[in-house]
Amino acid sequence: MPTSRAPSPRRYLVCEPRHFDVRYAINPWMRADVPVDTALAGRQWTALTEAYREHGHTVESVPPVPGLPDMVFAANSAVVVEGRVFGSHFHAPERRPESTAYETWFKAAGFDVYRPESVCEGEGDLVPAGRFLLAGTGFRTTRAAHREVQEFFGVPTISLQLVDPHFYHLDTALFVLGGDDGEQNIAYYPGAFSPGSREVLARLFPEAMTATRDDAMAFGLNSVSDGRHVFIAPQATGLIDELAARGYVPVPVDLSEFHKAGGGIKCCTQEIRS
Ligand code: ARG
């Protein structure tokens, strides 16, 4: 019998894809010669925000800035733990102005924002998971940023080495499912990590779900869970079945237009943890 899973209400920050497009290529998914259907992207994004609200979550929106086509990927702007905001410092010069745009929103909402010295792409690579902060490196966020974020939050930070350019951010290869007896569990794609990092994940999360490469390539690990509902790409069919077998409720939301930029559900969602 699957366990009964309890959801907890979340506060999400998003950015409307009014200026979303693929205009440069900074990951293997992005191809400037493949057009984005901006009207469809808008409908898909609206469906995501509606799904969050229908499931009891609060959704707030940062005003989109013209000329910043990746600003829709709100997860990269910061990581927020216990109401403290560790901001971003993007690897790609094209994305650097996003940090200030999000900082402006956070300050107006009453938060102080710490601006890291090291290259650091927010929740894209820094994933709070219970007692630990899981931290990806290899393509974007640096190990120096892992030290900086541990010093800032005082939360034990586990460095994980990403090795496959398709999974250039930690949140494309791993997500937090939610709690079992106060401990958080995760789902991940082992092939995205170095052998040592795979071992670290297996030790820390012996109950973890592992996903296939196909489900990972379908952005199935770029999911958002509230502890019960898992907002997930409908293309990740194997993972969806496995989640249901474990007592979660998959909520499929198709963000196929955003996959063209290398992003999915989680990338479009910043969680504000109080
Ligand atoms: N085009 C964006 C980039 O390469 C996509 C970011 C996706 N965000 C994420 N949290 N994985 O930076």
TrEMBL record:
Its EC number is 3.5.3.18. Keywords: Hydrolase. GO terms for molecular function: dimethylargininase activity. InterPro entries: DDAH-like (IPR033199). It comes from the Bacteria. Belongs to the DDAH family. This is Dimethylargininase.
